[in-house]
Amino acid sequence: MKKLICKLWNTLRRPAVHLSLGAVTLVSFVAGIIFWGGFNTALEATNTEEFCISCHEMQNNVYQELQGTVHWSNRSGVRATCPDCHVPHDWTDKIARKMQASKEVWGKVFGTIDTREKFLEKRLELAQHEWARFSANGSLECRNCHDYNSMNWDVMSDKAKRFMKPAAERDQSCIDCHKGIAHQLPEQMTFKDPALDQLEQRAQGLSPDKGGHYYTVKAITLYLDKELTQPAGELEAASPVQLQEESGDSVKLLVPAWRKTRGFGRVLYEDFGMNITSLVLDKEVAQNNELVKVQAEAKVDELTGLPWEPVEIALWAEKGALLPEAEDLWGYARDTYRTACSVCHSQPAEAHFDANTWPGMFAGMVGFTNMDADTQALVLKYLQKHSSDYADGAH
Fold first, then answer.
1. CA distance linking residue 290 with residue 313, whole number of Å
2. In this protein, which residues make up the domain named NapC/NirT cytochrome c N-terminal (predicted)?
3. What is the DSSP string of 135-181?
4. Which residues, including other chains, have CB under 8 Å from residue 181's CB and lie 6 or more apart?
5. Among residues 50, 209, 354, 379, which is most buried (max CB within 10 A)?
6. Which residues have a Cβ under 8 Å from the Cβ of 35 and sit 6 or more positions away?
Protein backbone atom coordinates (compact mmCIF):
# COMPACT_ATOMS: atom_id res chain seq x y z
CA MET A 1 0.00 0.00 0.00
CA LYS A 2 2.89 2.35 0.94
CA LYS A 3 4.56 1.65 -2.39
CA LEU A 4 1.28 2.36 -4.22
CA ILE A 5 0.87 5.72 -2.47
CA CYS A 6 4.46 6.69 -3.23
CA LYS A 7 4.02 5.70 -6.85
CA LEU A 8 0.87 7.81 -7.14
CA TRP A 9 2.58 10.79 -5.55
CA ASN A 10 5.57 10.48 -7.84
CA THR A 11 3.18 10.35 -10.80
CA LEU A 12 1.50 13.55 -9.70
CA ARG A 13 4.90 15.21 -9.24
CA ARG A 14 6.25 14.01 -12.55
CA PRO A 15 6.74 17.00 -14.85
CA ALA A 16 4.59 17.13 -17.93
CA VAL A 17 5.66 18.72 -21.15
CA HIS A 18 4.41 22.11 -19.98
CA LEU A 19 2.77 21.59 -16.56
CA SER A 20 3.02 19.04 -13.80
CA LEU A 21 0.21 16.50 -13.58
CA GLY A 22 -0.71 17.94 -10.17
CA ALA A 23 -1.09 21.40 -11.69
CA VAL A 24 -3.25 19.95 -14.48
CA THR A 25 -5.44 18.21 -11.90
CA LEU A 26 -5.80 21.39 -9.84
CA VAL A 27 -6.68 23.47 -12.89
CA SER A 28 -9.16 20.80 -14.00
CA PHE A 29 -10.77 20.81 -10.54
CA VAL A 30 -11.15 24.59 -10.55
CA ALA A 31 -12.42 24.53 -14.12
CA GLY A 32 -14.93 21.86 -13.10
CA ILE A 33 -16.24 24.04 -10.28
CA ILE A 34 -16.57 26.99 -12.65
CA PHE A 35 -18.27 24.83 -15.27
CA TRP A 36 -20.66 23.33 -12.73
CA GLY A 37 -21.50 26.73 -11.29
CA GLY A 38 -22.12 28.13 -14.75
CA PHE A 39 -24.17 25.09 -15.80
CA ASN A 40 -26.29 25.18 -12.66
CA THR A 41 -26.80 28.94 -13.00
CA ALA A 42 -27.93 28.50 -16.61
CA LEU A 43 -30.18 25.60 -15.58
CA GLU A 44 -31.88 27.66 -12.90
CA ALA A 45 -32.24 30.59 -15.29
CA THR A 46 -34.30 28.36 -17.57
CA ASN A 47 -36.33 27.36 -14.53
CA THR A 48 -37.99 30.73 -14.04
CA GLU A 49 -41.40 31.92 -15.12
CA GLU A 50 -39.76 34.83 -16.94
CA PHE A 51 -37.90 32.36 -19.14
CA CYS A 52 -40.98 30.20 -19.71
CA ILE A 53 -43.08 33.10 -20.99
CA SER A 54 -40.28 34.78 -22.93
CA CYS A 55 -41.68 33.27 -26.14
CA HIS A 56 -45.05 34.50 -27.36
CA GLU A 57 -46.33 30.91 -27.76
CA MET A 58 -46.63 30.63 -23.98
CA GLN A 59 -47.02 34.33 -23.13
CA ASN A 60 -50.10 34.79 -25.31
CA ASN A 61 -51.77 31.44 -24.69
CA VAL A 62 -51.51 29.32 -21.54
CA TYR A 63 -50.00 32.11 -19.42
CA GLN A 64 -53.09 34.25 -20.00
CA GLU A 65 -55.33 31.36 -18.90
CA LEU A 66 -53.30 30.75 -15.75
CA GLN A 67 -54.02 34.28 -14.55
CA GLY A 68 -57.71 33.50 -14.24
CA THR A 69 -57.25 30.50 -11.95
CA VAL A 70 -56.78 29.86 -8.24
CA HIS A 71 -53.15 28.91 -8.90
CA TRP A 72 -52.51 32.56 -9.82
CA SER A 73 -54.49 34.38 -7.14
CA ASN A 74 -56.02 32.98 -3.95
CA ARG A 75 -56.75 33.83 -0.34
CA SER A 76 -53.44 32.33 0.82
CA GLY A 77 -51.35 34.46 -1.52
CA VAL A 78 -49.46 31.43 -2.85
CA ARG A 79 -48.79 31.45 -6.59
CA ALA A 80 -47.70 28.44 -8.64
CA THR A 81 -45.35 29.43 -11.46
CA CYS A 82 -44.76 27.51 -14.69
CA PRO A 83 -41.71 25.52 -13.45
CA ASP A 84 -43.46 24.63 -10.19
CA CYS A 85 -45.83 22.43 -12.18
CA HIS A 86 -43.98 21.61 -15.39
CA VAL A 87 -40.38 21.02 -14.30
CA PRO A 88 -39.59 18.06 -12.00
CA HIS A 89 -37.98 19.09 -8.73
CA ASP A 90 -35.74 16.00 -8.51
CA TRP A 91 -32.41 16.77 -10.23
CA THR A 92 -32.15 13.68 -12.44
CA ASP A 93 -35.77 13.99 -13.62
CA LYS A 94 -35.20 17.70 -14.15
CA ILE A 95 -32.24 17.01 -16.45
CA ALA A 96 -34.28 14.44 -18.38
CA ARG A 97 -37.08 17.00 -18.81
CA LYS A 98 -34.60 19.62 -20.00
CA MET A 99 -33.31 17.18 -22.61
CA GLN A 100 -36.87 16.62 -23.78
CA ALA A 101 -37.28 20.38 -24.02
CA SER A 102 -34.80 20.43 -26.90
CA LYS A 103 -37.76 19.43 -29.05
CA GLU A 104 -39.55 22.55 -27.91
CA VAL A 105 -36.58 24.66 -28.99
CA TRP A 106 -36.84 23.02 -32.41
CA GLY A 107 -40.55 23.87 -32.50
CA LYS A 108 -39.78 27.48 -31.57
CA VAL A 109 -37.19 27.84 -34.34
CA PHE A 110 -39.44 26.37 -37.01
CA GLY A 111 -42.70 27.98 -35.85
CA THR A 112 -44.63 24.81 -34.95
CA ILE A 113 -47.13 26.74 -32.82
CA ASP A 114 -46.28 30.34 -33.62
CA THR A 115 -49.92 31.32 -34.19
CA ARG A 116 -53.02 30.94 -32.04
CA GLU A 117 -54.57 28.68 -34.66
CA LYS A 118 -51.54 26.34 -34.73
CA PHE A 119 -51.47 26.26 -30.94
CA LEU A 120 -55.14 25.26 -30.66
CA GLU A 121 -54.65 22.58 -33.32
CA LYS A 122 -51.74 21.04 -31.38
CA ARG A 123 -53.19 21.67 -27.93
CA LEU A 124 -54.60 18.19 -27.31
CA GLU A 125 -51.30 16.55 -28.25
CA LEU A 126 -49.33 18.89 -25.99
CA ALA A 127 -51.74 18.35 -23.10
CA GLN A 128 -51.62 14.58 -23.49
CA HIS A 129 -47.83 14.63 -23.15
CA GLU A 130 -48.09 16.45 -19.83
CA TRP A 131 -50.98 14.29 -18.59
CA ALA A 132 -48.97 11.17 -19.35
CA ARG A 133 -45.98 12.57 -17.43
CA PHE A 134 -48.15 13.45 -14.43
CA SER A 135 -49.80 10.03 -14.50
CA ALA A 136 -46.42 8.29 -14.62
CA ASN A 137 -44.99 10.15 -11.62
CA GLY A 138 -48.20 10.23 -9.57
CA SER A 139 -48.61 13.98 -10.09
CA LEU A 140 -45.43 14.58 -8.10
CA GLU A 141 -45.24 18.28 -8.96
CA CYS A 142 -48.80 18.80 -7.67
CA ARG A 143 -48.07 16.88 -4.52
CA ASN A 144 -45.01 18.92 -3.67
CA CYS A 145 -47.66 21.38 -2.44
CA HIS A 146 -50.84 19.29 -2.13
CA ASP A 147 -49.97 16.30 0.03
CA TYR A 148 -52.68 13.86 1.09
CA ASN A 149 -51.11 13.48 4.52
CA SER A 150 -51.34 17.23 5.14
CA MET A 151 -55.00 17.61 4.23
CA ASN A 152 -57.31 18.71 7.03
CA TRP A 153 -60.50 16.76 6.40
CA ASP A 154 -62.37 18.64 9.13
CA VAL A 155 -62.29 21.96 7.28
CA MET A 156 -62.85 20.47 3.83
CA SER A 157 -66.33 20.77 2.30
CA ASP A 158 -68.49 17.65 2.32
CA LYS A 159 -68.46 17.55 -1.47
CA ALA A 160 -64.67 17.74 -1.71
CA LYS A 161 -64.21 15.28 1.13
CA ARG A 162 -66.47 12.74 -0.57
CA PHE A 163 -64.11 12.62 -3.56
CA MET A 164 -60.75 13.31 -1.93
CA LYS A 165 -60.83 10.72 0.84
CA PRO A 166 -61.17 7.73 -1.54
CA ALA A 167 -58.47 9.28 -3.74
CA ALA A 168 -56.15 9.55 -0.74
CA GLU A 169 -56.80 5.93 0.21
CA ARG A 170 -55.81 4.86 -3.31
CA ASP A 171 -52.90 7.34 -3.43
CA GLN A 172 -54.42 8.48 -6.70
CA SER A 173 -52.68 10.75 -9.17
CA CYS A 174 -54.14 14.28 -9.06
CA ILE A 175 -54.29 14.55 -12.87
CA ASP A 176 -56.88 11.75 -13.03
CA CYS A 177 -59.53 14.21 -11.85
CA HIS A 178 -58.01 17.66 -12.18
CA LYS A 179 -57.28 18.13 -15.87
CA GLY A 180 -58.00 21.73 -16.75
CA ILE A 181 -57.30 23.00 -13.23
CA ALA A 182 -54.82 25.66 -14.41
CA HIS A 183 -55.40 25.80 -18.16
CA GLN A 184 -58.38 25.37 -20.46
CA LEU A 185 -59.13 21.89 -21.71
CA PRO A 186 -58.51 21.25 -25.42
CA GLU A 187 -61.62 21.69 -27.52
CA GLN A 188 -60.87 18.34 -29.19
CA MET A 189 -61.69 16.57 -25.90
CA THR A 190 -65.38 17.10 -26.60
CA PHE A 191 -66.25 14.59 -29.28
CA LYS A 192 -69.34 12.88 -30.63
CA ASP A 193 -69.71 9.46 -29.04
CA PRO A 194 -70.00 6.83 -31.82
CA ALA A 195 -72.52 4.84 -29.75
CA LEU A 196 -74.82 7.87 -29.46
CA ASP A 197 -74.32 8.54 -33.15
CA GLN A 198 -75.58 5.02 -33.90
CA LEU A 199 -78.72 5.64 -31.83
CA GLU A 200 -79.34 8.86 -33.74
CA GLN A 201 -78.91 7.04 -37.05
CA ARG A 202 -81.45 4.44 -35.95
CA ALA A 203 -83.88 7.21 -35.09
CA GLN A 204 -83.37 8.81 -38.49
CA GLY A 205 -84.15 5.55 -40.22
CA LEU A 206 -87.32 4.89 -38.19
CA SER A 207 -90.79 5.39 -39.68
CA PRO A 208 -92.93 6.29 -36.63
CA ASP A 209 -96.62 5.37 -36.49
CA LYS A 210 -99.41 7.82 -35.83
CA GLY A 211 -100.61 7.49 -32.24
CA GLY A 212 -97.40 5.71 -31.21
CA HIS A 213 -95.45 6.54 -28.07
CA TYR A 214 -91.79 7.44 -28.47
CA TYR A 215 -88.75 8.96 -26.77
CA THR A 216 -86.50 11.67 -28.13
CA VAL A 217 -82.96 10.47 -28.74
CA LYS A 218 -81.58 14.00 -28.33
CA ALA A 219 -82.76 17.54 -27.66
CA ILE A 220 -84.83 18.91 -30.57
CA THR A 221 -86.38 22.25 -31.46
CA LEU A 222 -90.18 22.46 -31.51
CA TYR A 223 -92.19 24.73 -33.79
CA LEU A 224 -95.67 26.20 -33.97
CA ASP A 225 -96.07 25.33 -37.67
CA LYS A 226 -95.42 22.24 -39.77
CA GLU A 227 -93.18 24.29 -42.08
CA LEU A 228 -90.84 24.62 -39.09
CA THR A 229 -90.46 28.39 -39.37
CA GLN A 230 -91.77 29.54 -35.96
CA PRO A 231 -89.67 28.17 -33.06
CA ALA A 232 -91.64 27.45 -29.89
CA GLY A 233 -89.17 25.79 -27.55
CA GLU A 234 -86.71 22.97 -26.92
CA LEU A 235 -87.67 19.38 -26.14
CA GLU A 236 -85.09 17.61 -23.96
CA ALA A 237 -83.47 14.23 -24.65
CA ALA A 238 -85.32 11.06 -23.58
CA SER A 239 -88.62 12.88 -23.19
CA PRO A 240 -91.79 10.79 -23.73
CA VAL A 241 -94.05 11.98 -26.58
CA GLN A 242 -96.96 10.73 -28.68
CA LEU A 243 -96.98 11.18 -32.45
CA GLN A 244 -100.19 12.95 -33.48
CA GLU A 245 -99.65 13.86 -37.09
CA GLU A 246 -97.15 13.60 -39.93
CA SER A 247 -96.58 15.98 -42.82
CA GLY A 248 -93.62 15.61 -45.16
CA ASP A 249 -90.47 15.83 -43.08
CA SER A 250 -92.34 17.12 -40.02
CA VAL A 251 -94.16 15.40 -37.18
CA LYS A 252 -96.57 16.82 -34.63
CA LEU A 253 -95.79 15.65 -31.12
CA LEU A 254 -98.03 15.65 -28.07
CA VAL A 255 -95.97 16.23 -24.92
CA PRO A 256 -97.56 15.41 -21.54
CA ALA A 257 -95.90 17.23 -18.65
CA TRP A 258 -96.22 19.05 -15.33
CA ARG A 259 -95.51 22.68 -14.58
CA LYS A 260 -95.26 24.87 -11.52
CA THR A 261 -98.02 27.46 -11.41
CA ARG A 262 -95.65 30.16 -10.16
CA GLY A 263 -93.79 32.28 -12.70
CA PHE A 264 -94.21 32.14 -16.47
CA GLY A 265 -94.39 28.33 -16.62
CA ARG A 266 -91.75 28.13 -19.36
CA VAL A 267 -90.20 24.93 -18.01
CA LEU A 268 -92.32 21.79 -18.22
CA TYR A 269 -91.34 18.76 -16.15
CA GLU A 270 -91.77 15.06 -16.70
CA ASP A 271 -93.33 14.18 -13.36
CA PHE A 272 -95.05 15.82 -10.41
CA GLY A 273 -92.64 17.40 -7.93
CA MET A 274 -89.60 16.20 -9.91
CA ASN A 275 -87.25 18.70 -11.55
CA ILE A 276 -86.77 16.44 -14.55
CA THR A 277 -86.91 18.90 -17.41
CA SER A 278 -88.96 17.77 -20.37
CA LEU A 279 -89.51 20.95 -22.34
CA VAL A 280 -88.47 24.60 -22.22
CA LEU A 281 -90.93 26.91 -24.00
CA ASP A 282 -90.60 30.42 -25.33
CA LYS A 283 -92.30 32.90 -22.99
CA GLU A 284 -95.15 33.77 -25.37
CA VAL A 285 -95.87 30.10 -26.05
CA ALA A 286 -95.81 29.21 -22.34
CA GLN A 287 -98.46 31.84 -21.60
CA ASN A 288 -100.75 30.76 -24.45
CA ASN A 289 -103.52 28.75 -22.76
CA GLU A 290 -104.77 27.50 -26.12
CA LEU A 291 -101.44 25.76 -26.70
CA VAL A 292 -100.57 24.71 -23.15
CA LYS A 293 -103.72 22.88 -22.05
CA VAL A 294 -104.28 22.18 -18.37
CA GLN A 295 -105.50 18.61 -17.81
CA ALA A 296 -106.57 18.69 -14.15
CA GLU A 297 -106.55 20.81 -11.01
CA ALA A 298 -103.24 21.78 -9.50
CA LYS A 299 -101.91 19.94 -6.46
CA VAL A 300 -99.37 21.06 -3.92
CA ASP A 301 -95.95 19.51 -3.51
CA GLU A 302 -95.71 19.04 0.26
CA LEU A 303 -91.92 19.27 0.22
CA THR A 304 -91.75 22.74 -1.34
CA GLY A 305 -95.27 24.04 -0.89
CA LEU A 306 -95.48 24.83 -4.62
CA PRO A 307 -98.59 23.97 -6.66
CA TRP A 308 -98.07 21.88 -9.80
CA GLU A 309 -100.57 21.23 -12.61
CA PRO A 310 -100.61 18.57 -15.35
CA VAL A 311 -100.55 20.00 -18.89
CA GLU A 312 -100.25 18.93 -22.51
CA ILE A 313 -98.88 20.73 -25.53
CA ALA A 314 -98.76 19.70 -29.19
CA LEU A 315 -96.01 21.15 -31.38
CA TRP A 316 -94.18 20.33 -34.61
CA ALA A 317 -90.64 18.97 -34.97
CA GLU A 318 -88.37 17.65 -37.65
CA LYS A 319 -88.49 13.90 -38.29
CA GLY A 320 -85.69 11.59 -37.30
CA ALA A 321 -85.25 11.95 -33.53
CA LEU A 322 -87.62 9.33 -32.08
CA LEU A 323 -87.05 5.84 -30.72
CA PRO A 324 -89.83 3.50 -29.51
CA GLU A 325 -88.01 2.07 -26.46
CA ALA A 326 -86.54 4.09 -23.62
CA GLU A 327 -84.31 1.17 -22.69
CA ASP A 328 -82.23 1.76 -25.83
CA LEU A 329 -81.37 5.19 -24.46
CA TRP A 330 -80.95 4.04 -20.87
CA GLY A 331 -78.54 1.27 -21.90
CA TYR A 332 -76.26 3.76 -23.61
CA ALA A 333 -76.53 6.27 -20.76
CA ARG A 334 -75.85 3.57 -18.15
CA ASP A 335 -72.67 2.39 -19.88
CA THR A 336 -71.47 5.96 -20.39
CA TYR A 337 -72.07 6.91 -16.77
CA ARG A 338 -70.28 3.89 -15.38
CA THR A 339 -67.33 4.28 -17.72
CA ALA A 340 -66.82 8.05 -17.76
CA CYS A 341 -67.60 8.70 -14.11
CA SER A 342 -65.46 5.94 -12.61
CA VAL A 343 -62.16 7.54 -13.67
CA CYS A 344 -62.04 9.89 -10.69
CA HIS A 345 -63.86 7.86 -8.05
CA SER A 346 -66.34 5.07 -7.45
CA GLN A 347 -69.44 6.63 -8.95
CA PRO A 348 -72.57 6.76 -6.74
CA ALA A 349 -75.29 4.24 -7.52
CA GLU A 350 -78.15 5.69 -9.54
CA ALA A 351 -80.56 5.28 -6.63
CA HIS A 352 -78.19 6.90 -4.15
CA PHE A 353 -79.77 10.32 -4.76
CA ASP A 354 -83.29 11.49 -5.52
CA ALA A 355 -84.28 13.07 -8.84
CA ASN A 356 -83.97 16.64 -7.55
CA THR A 357 -80.49 16.10 -6.10
CA TRP A 358 -78.95 14.51 -9.18
CA PRO A 359 -78.61 17.68 -11.32
CA GLY A 360 -76.33 19.37 -8.77
CA MET A 361 -74.29 16.21 -8.19
CA PHE A 362 -73.91 15.52 -11.89
CA ALA A 363 -72.85 19.10 -12.61
CA GLY A 364 -69.94 18.66 -10.21
CA MET A 365 -68.86 15.42 -11.89
CA VAL A 366 -69.32 16.06 -15.59
CA GLY A 367 -66.65 18.76 -15.81
CA PHE A 368 -64.01 16.04 -15.46
CA THR A 369 -65.31 14.05 -18.43
CA ASN A 370 -65.30 14.61 -22.17
CA MET A 371 -69.03 14.08 -22.75
CA ASP A 372 -70.59 16.24 -25.42
CA ALA A 373 -73.75 18.22 -24.60
CA ASP A 374 -76.17 15.63 -26.01
CA THR A 375 -74.56 12.84 -24.00
CA GLN A 376 -74.59 14.91 -20.82
CA ALA A 377 -78.31 15.60 -21.16
CA LEU A 378 -79.09 11.96 -21.78
CA VAL A 379 -76.99 10.68 -18.87
CA LEU A 380 -78.54 13.19 -16.48
CA LYS A 381 -82.06 12.20 -17.54
CA TYR A 382 -81.10 8.53 -17.02
CA LEU A 383 -79.81 9.24 -13.50
CA GLN A 384 -82.95 11.15 -12.57
CA LYS A 385 -85.27 8.50 -13.97
CA HIS A 386 -83.38 5.78 -12.08
CA SER A 387 -82.98 7.75 -8.86
CA SER A 388 -84.30 6.77 -5.44
CA ASP A 389 -87.67 8.31 -6.37
CA TYR A 390 -88.15 5.54 -8.93
CA ALA A 391 -86.30 2.65 -7.28
CA ASP A 392 -88.03 0.27 -4.88
CA GLY A 393 -86.30 0.05 -1.52
CA ALA A 394 -83.83 2.84 -2.22
CA HIS A 395 -82.89 5.24 0.55
1. 9
2. 16-187
3. HHTTSHHHHTT--GGG--TTTS-HHHHHHHHHHHHTT--GGGT-TTS
4. 69, 71
5. 379
6. none
